[in-house]
Structure formats: structure tokens, C-alpha cells
């Protein structure tokens, strides 16, 4: 959640301090039932100024004082924050249906047409999008069909690092190129550039798109200050980006339709079709789905954009954090390198067949996700009815935030929670990896109806990239610099490593 626009409104907070701060306690709609505890807030802005630039950290500190379920008032928006595994389980499993909707997020509505499977409110349109995504785009068969694309992009990534070997490599640039390459091929196929002149411009366009998608508008929480969004240029920038992305996806869909013959692209089998092909199949095969909701071009565009944004950001962010943690923990890096190099056995590249034997690498990724959940506050839920959370009353249409970052670092749930200890996941080696809702101490992808269905797509991309980098190169910080990488965070659609990951790559051969 990017709250930087609120800095421009400090004068409002200062004026508000002239009034007496008050306890945002028990609004009348509680009807006498016990609402969650609430910190002191300010008139008009409520608890917005308390969020700061890194809300997940400040909310963790507040939860330590007020408990794992808190009621905040973000401007005019009542918001319940869940900060424990038990609270997360109740939101995403025990009372999943009551918490299954999403609040109105203005940026998502403007950039994703209000029709996507991530931000859309609970209802028939969302169920349709979710069904198409799970059954047609993100099934095991579909994920496996992009195996060669992932392996080719991983090989291209290794070649790019090798060209800069023994010099300082900007690993951020390398990893964003890899993740964009994988999702571009899965989404758009191997066709034309669609006016973007190759991968670098595509990466730049989607970086701005993702930044805007993660931006919170002032008018969303304090409607009478909506003019600030216009004054800061946010509305104009969003309108420009919306038009640009809409035109891009329109070109992609039109190109795919021109190249299709008999319901699929000419000359390509099942294992070569991309997401747009699959969505056009659904569009043509099902004139209406579910409760008579048309799966039209708007639904296709929304699906394409949310898939691109979610897959790129999650994979890229997690890979940067994983390499950063390993640089700061050389013993763990050597251990995972030894495992990868033994599994590959002197071959010239890492293939996806090798991944099933890399149990320690999987633990490294899990530990990275525990410490650095890509979306530390997940996507917000909204209650569909009056319900309860750990015995507290939560009225209908209340926004609910699950602080996955705080849950992953909860000392009541984890031994030495602030330390990077991949071996803590050793007991999970024989279980299905990353199953949503298996352990509510570990919810980087959410769970339940609104859990991320793209886990099966993202994880092989992360594992293959990390294994390839650690197989082919030994890594270290540049000489003359600090002996340890600073792990400060930068907030956006996801929380990223603030520092650029400049590392020295030394080629390794068997």
C-alpha cells in the first residue's frame, strides 16, 4: 500500500492536532456487540497518519500493543487488521465466505476494468473470471506447457550474466528481464512486439502500470480531499496509462484473432498456445457462462493485465529478496549451490526435471516468502455480511487487511522469527509445496476463495531462475563496498528491496 501521497497532507494532520484526539471506539452500527480494540486516531483522517511509508511494519507494532485483531479508521473507511495465524485462518478458511469480497479500489477499477479475478468484488463476474483462470490458464497442464519458455528464458538470463561476469552485474535488471520474458511469452506468445520495440520497453511500461496499481488514491479514503489526486497529476497519469494498456491489449487480441484458423492459432499445437489463445477459445466456445455473464473482450483484457502484473511483480520481487538473503548468508548459499550442482551433475544447464530434487532450494524460497511476502498486507478483503473475528463483531462492508508480513514474523508462531533459517521448513519436504491454507502461519499467497491461483505458475519460474543463477556462478558483493547488503524496503504494489542488487558473478564450471 503506497501512502506517499499522504505526506503532502501533513498540514491537515497538523490542523487536526488542534482538536482533541479521540478513541475511535464503538460506532453505533456495532449495536452493542464488542468491536475490536482501536488505537487513538485523529479527527477526519483517523488512523491514516499512523500507517507511514511501510504500513506492514507500523501495523505490526500497533498489533503488539492492541492485539491480533484491531479496528482502524482510514479516513472514512472502517478497517479491521488481522495479524495472527488464528485470525488469518478465520478470515480465509473458517468464515471464508463472509470475508470473500473485495472493497472498491479505484486504481484497480480504472486499470483493470473492475472485471479481474484479483480485485473484483465477490459475485458472478468474479466467479466466472476465477473459473476461467483456474481451469484454463493456471491448471497443471497449462503451467507445464510453458516449461520450454521458462527454460529458454533462464538460459538467456544466464547468458546475460555471463556477458558481464567478473564485473558488477545489476541483478535487478537481469531478473526483471527474465520475469518479463517468461510472462510475456505465456501471455502474448512469441509473436510481434505490438509497438513496444522489444522486452525493455515492455518492462518499463508494465513497471509504471504496476506502480500505479499499487498507489492508494486520497479520494478513496477521504472523499473531500479527492482534488489532491488531480492536483498531484495522479488522475491524468492513470488515464494515460489506462489508454496505453487498453490499446496494447487490443492490438494483441486483434493480432491473435487474425492468426487463428478454426478456433486456434495457425501452426501451433496445445503446448504452444498462450493465454490470449486460451481466453479466445473460452470467448468463442461459451457465448454465455455462469449466470448469463458474457465473457467478452473486456473480461479478456482484464484477465491478461492482472496475470501480467501479478506474475511479474511476485516472481521478480521474491527472486531479488532470495538473492539478497543468500548474499548475507554465505553458508546457506554454499549449501544450496552444492545441492543444485550435485543434482545437475555437470550438465550444461538446469532443467525443470532437476527441481524436484532441490529440497533445500525450496526451503530457501519458502523462507524468503516468510520474511518478505511479496504483498505483505495481501489484497484487502471486505465482509459480505455481519460476522465475527476471534470473538469480535465485524459489520458487513468492513475492509479487512491480513498482515501476512507480521504473521510470518510472529514470535508466538516461529522460533527466532527475524532470522533467515531455511531449515525451519525441513519438515515440509514431503508435503505438497506452497499449498494455500495448509499452514496459516505462512500465507504469502493468501488462502481460501481469494487465495492467489497463480502459485503453480510463479513457483517453477522462481525455482528455475534461482537454481540457474546459483549453478552457473559464484556470487559476492563488490570489492571496496559494505560487507553486508542493507535490507531496507521500498513500498509499491509489492514491497521490494530498496537497494539495487549489484553483485559480482564469477563463472563456475564442473
From TrEMBL:
Residues 1-25 form the signal peptide. Keywords: Heme, Iron, Metal-binding, Monooxygenase, Oxidoreductase, Signal. SUPFAM superfamilies: Cytochrome P450. Its cofactor is heme. Pfam families: p450. Gene3D superfamilies: Cytochrome P450 (1.10.630.10). Heme binds at residue 452. InterPro entries: Cyt_P450 (IPR001128), Cyt_P450_CS (IPR017972), Cyt_P450_E_grp-I (IPR002401), Cyt_P450_sf (IPR036396). One of its GO terms (molecular function) is oxidoreductase activity. CDD domains: CYP71-like. Belongs to the cytochrome P450 family. This is Cytochrome P450 71A1.
